[in-house]
Amino acid sequence: MANPPQPSLGYSVTAIPSKPDSSTPQPEKNSVPPPTMLPGASRFPPPKLQQDQIPSPSLQNPKLLSPANGVKTGSLVPHLSTPPGPPVFTSPVRPAAVPFRTSPATPQPVAFTSGSTLPTSSPPHFSNGSIELQHQVPFATNDSIPFEESSCALFSARKVLKQKKLANVPSLGFGALFSPGREIFPGPQIIQREPHRCHNCGAYANFHCKILLSSGQWQCVICHKLNGSEGEYVAPSKEDLHNFLELSSPIIDYVQIGNKRSGFIPVSDSRMSAPTVLVIDDCLDETHLQHLQSSLHAFVDSLPPIARIGIILYGRTVSVYDFSEESMASADVLPGDKSPTQESLKALIYGTGVYLSTMHASKEVAHKIISSLRSFGLNIAEASRDRCLGTAVEVAMAIIQGPSAEMSRGIVKRAGGNSRIIVCAGGPNTYGPGSVPHSFSHPNYPHMEKTALKWMENLGCEAHRHNTVVDILCAGTCPVRVPVLQPLSKASGGVLVLHDDFGEAFGVNLQKAASRASGFHGLLEIRCSDDILITQVVGPGEEAHVDTHETFKNNNALCIQMLSVEETQSFALSMETKGDIKCDYVFFQFAVQYTNVYQADIIRVVTVRLPTVDSVSAYLESVQYEVAAILMAKRTLLRAKSHSDAMDMRGTIDERIKDIALKFGSLVPKSKLHRFPKELSALSELLFHLRRGPLLGSIVGHEDERSVLRNLFLNASSDLSLCMVAPRCLMHREGGTFEELPAYDLAMQSDTAVVLDHGTDVFIWLGAELAADEGRSAAALAACRTLAEEITELRFPAPRILAFKEGSSQARYFVSRLIPAHKDPPYEQEARFPQLKSLTIEQRMKLKTSFIHFDDPSFCFKYVIGQRCWS
């Protein structure tokens, strides 16, 4: 089959000539259309070029929300730090599971070390006759580069303090959020050729580089070394350098589609050719089974005709369903008490059965298999039923790796992209390898749990080595022992999600798990100016052992092996300065190499330049408080491994607020007290939300839920992370519009409807007066549901959407996520919740009397009063 045209890659590709002609028109930019925008799209305002690299000049929340801009949604990396050595990672260092592939034509990836050399404050002039080193584009000077242009890396401040002592104050800190796979609108510039890289440090040519126009040499912004461009950058004037996209844009995607790997599949087939195997719990009660069957039927109907699927059931045995039997549901059965032997797997795979089949050929068979499922028939408690989940996943991996369904027709077709195993679990793994005893009171439980954790992690690593992602979707009332199952999904690059039941939310996540785009073989390289040291990395990756010193002499890049590359992920980077900074700018370059779902090799290069300042006030004004709050929250949650740890971490937030006031606040006249810096007032409110929300507070009850929530947050994208720290509050207005308001309980006005989005759940609250009017209530509820579905359309895992009326028992969940401000003085209420000014006196009195008073302190009394003076 001939390869389809290039647009099927998902890019509008622009080929760059080796020697550009100044008469050539400006290369065309990516034609990916922007998303439908409603008022106030995202809490991180959309940048001019891309969407998730660096925050805009102010991360203030817009007044109105856009429901259409859905929030996009990582595991930890290891602790390794001794200045000025490698950064501290957050989980035990493991060897990279799959070394990143490079072709001979591609410069080799870099080794694992820390910084690079410092750019000078005034760019040096290199003499070559009468030619001087030029800026590559006219707008690449000082502050004329818009800050929003770099949008995949969100920094906690737009400027860097020169003084080491203040820059490294741990209570505030400095760092960045980087989202390697985030979709960007408008799309990044695309180049279909090998990138120019520094021969000394491995950095990529970028739009901050200096160019020698006569020779085409360029100066690296990281190590200052001159590099040749094989004459490509030779140009009569610096304006002609606009023809080179890498010299005119902060974000570049280098795309290589000449894929010669065995198993390469044409682009039109590759994304859907990777099989999905459903591994289903066979120990469910009737009610749960009915909901699961409904979700599975909808899942099968949602798959495209070319999608390949397999179905496996597990209990005490593993049943592998055969799609060649069209008249009835037929399965081959393997024992579940031990790992399958090579002989049994060979007999299964090379037999006559068809265990992976395309939907266009076997859709009806899949429906028959699902309809044939039966509930658990014995009178045994859910937690005590035997489930051989580990063995079932091993069998699923063997089927994916073995000959495909086309074997019987003489065709062996390898999967393109990541294969996916989706486990539908209703209880813990209690039988066979990787299992734990039914009861926690078992005398050998701690040892068996430790053994199970290691076995599950090894199984996940094995899945990752074979480009297979394991997602575990749990539901029901039986605890699934999350600590035992999570290493399997985490090590494979998948997720573990808890649901109340196997109903709507489960079904949505089942479909999203199978269809979400996921790159693989990912390697992230981070290079910084020599003054900057990366001290900690939190995200979905691990240390990468890559030796490229033969290719690059002084490669000091931080290298991270990524378990998967998805737009719902981000890395949180904590940074420090090694000493007082002497130059006017510091540089950061992020380069992520991966293979996308269309089998194209991508290198995304993002280069950021930040100015340095002496003034503390100028630095504080540049602080992006939302990014700073997310970084603080991820560092805090990293230490909150249990409920008791979470309680301790709440106290550290109070100490952090106090220390910021002492280090950066101003002295009260004729006193030793410090005022909290007014530039950071919004930061303290976000930290108050963190302190009392589900991540650290007591809202979440079961430890399984807390563990899943914590792991999701540590790897989540910037948008989802922010919602999980501080929810978005949106009040419905007449005409179907929404106004974004501070997340205060003063929004609970009886004649309104309010949507509260806190990442993993979206609550819709209907006031009592509104609920009494059936017509208005129905219209408001419909508008709120539409909004909730739109803002979560691209989010994975999909959140629950719950609606309830004022005064109902469920409304307590809504109230618990809002800051209690009803007891604050009126002037404080109006200052922090200006919408109150639009209410009449009668309406305000009615609102005040509607609240039930309790002891939970408000933000005003907890922090605002205290912020005014700290000793």
Description:
This protein has 871 residues and is α+β, with helices and mostly antiparallel strands. The chain contains 21 helices and 32 strands. Strands 4, 6, 10, 19, 21, 22, 24 and 25 form an eight-stranded mixed β-sheet that branches. Strands 11, 12, 13, 14, 15, 16, 17 and 18 form an eight-stranded mixed β-sheet that branches. The longest helix has 22 residues, at 643-664. The radius of gyration is 28 Å and the shape is globular. It starts with 87 loop residues before the first strand and ends with a helix. Residues 1-42, 45-149, 259-272, 404-416 and 865-871 have low confidence and may be disordered.
Q: What level of helicity do the residues show?
A: 25-40%
Q: What is the makeup of the main sheet? A: 8 strands, mixed
Overall geometry: globular
Structural class: alpha+beta
Q: Uncertain segments of ≥5 residues (pLDDT<50)?
A: 1-42, 45-149, 259-272, 404-416, 865-871
Task: Provide the β-strand percentage band.
Answer: 15-25%
| Mean pLDDT over all positions | 79
Work out the radius of gyration: 28 Å
Number of distinct beta strands: 32
Distance between the termini: 74 Å
Count of DSSP-assigned helices: 21
Question: How would you briefly describe this protein structure?
Answer:
It is globular, with a radius of gyration of 28 Å. It is of the alpha+beta class and 871 residues long. α3 (286-302) runs parallel beside α9, α11 crosses α15 (718-725) and α12 packs antiparallel against α13 (681-692).
Topology:
Blueprint: E1 88-89, E2 133-135, E3 153-155, E4 160-161, H1 164-167, E5 174-178, E6 189-191, E7 210-212, E8 218-219, E9 226-227, E10 251-256, H2 267-273, E11 276-281, H3 286-302, E12 308-314, E13 317-322, E14 330-335, H4 342-349, E15 357-358, H5 359-371, H6 389-401, E16 419-425, H7 445-465, E17 468-475, H8 482-492, E18 496-499, H9 504-515, E19 520-528, E20 532-538, E21 541-543, E22 558-562, E23 571-577, E24 585-595, E25 601-613, H10 616-621, H11 625-639, H12 643-664, E26 666-667, E27 674-675, H13 681-692, H14 703-715, H15 718-725, E28 728-732, E29 738-741, E30 753-757, E31 761-766, H16 768-772, H17 774-791, E32 800-805, H18 811-816, H19 826-832, H20 841-849, H21 859-867
Parallel strand pairs: 1-20, 4-25, 6-10, 11-12, 11-16, 16-17, 17-18, 31-32
Antiparallel strand pairs: 2-7, 3-5, 5-23, 7-8, 8-9, 10-25, 12-13, 12-15, 13-14, 19-22, 19-24, 20-23, 21-22, 24-25, 26-27, 28-29, 28-30, 30-31
Helix pairs in contact: 3-5, 3-9, 7-8, 11-13, 11-15, 12-13
